[in-house]
Design goal:
It is a single chain. The protein is built from ten helices and eleven strands. The termini are far apart. The strands form three sheets. A four-stranded antiparallel β-sheet has the order 2-6-4-5. Strands 8-9-11-10 form a four-stranded antiparallel β-sheet. With 267 residues, it is an alpha+beta fold.
Length: 267
Amino acid sequence: MIADALFAAPDEIVPAQAPREASRLTRKLEAFLPFDEEERDALDHIVELNVRHFPAGSILVEPGSSPREVMIMMEGWAVRSKPIDAGRQIVALHLPGDICDFNALLTRRADCAIEAASDVRVACINHRMMSDITRRFPRIGQAFWCDSLSAASVQREWTVNVATRNARARMSHLLCELHARLFLTGEADAGGYDMPLRQTDLGNACGLTPETSSRVLARLKADRLVRLKDRRVEIMQAGALLLSAGYNAQYLHLNQTDDMFRTLFKN
């Protein structure tokens, strides 16, 4: 049995003091439900066995393909998009610790493309292994579903962002969301975060033209709210950026949302 091979004995598990490939995933999932040591070890172990490397620009998932694996971002960013006549529309950003599509366990055909926005390290877990670990450790399965529900909530918030907010609020909201999501997995601090996306990609994700997104970002910089420099977003006035966006992270459905807000948006 695959499950027996994966979880046969504690001494087969990577020692706790060694760097863990799944540290970002575990940290994110524990924002929904706490794990015990056995659950953490099992989750880390299955991810470590299945890590692959892809350079920036690699197509991780083709539209219309039949997904045979669940992809988990370990390092780097990926972009989910739908093809349109003018090129593509970005519909989601996958960050370290993200499960790209837990629903791939159930779907027959992928309806979006997923492309590496930077060099990435991705854990590709086949359906059999996912079924084994969720059956053996039900709380891990529950955390996966919590993450899937959070991802769906993010998609709803993106719809509201594009449909109802002005250009400045849209961009501010996306920058706040990225700050919160990256902070959760240790990829951001109160001062900001590294970001491989171009300004045009940010604008695309907000439903803005390149010209409009450039003007909005220039205005946010002039107002000393943020600064984009050397592929890094520097948060200069987090509280003012939050107000500009009307941002409230409750839609992420995390246990420590209030603590995160106090840390990120205190200035």
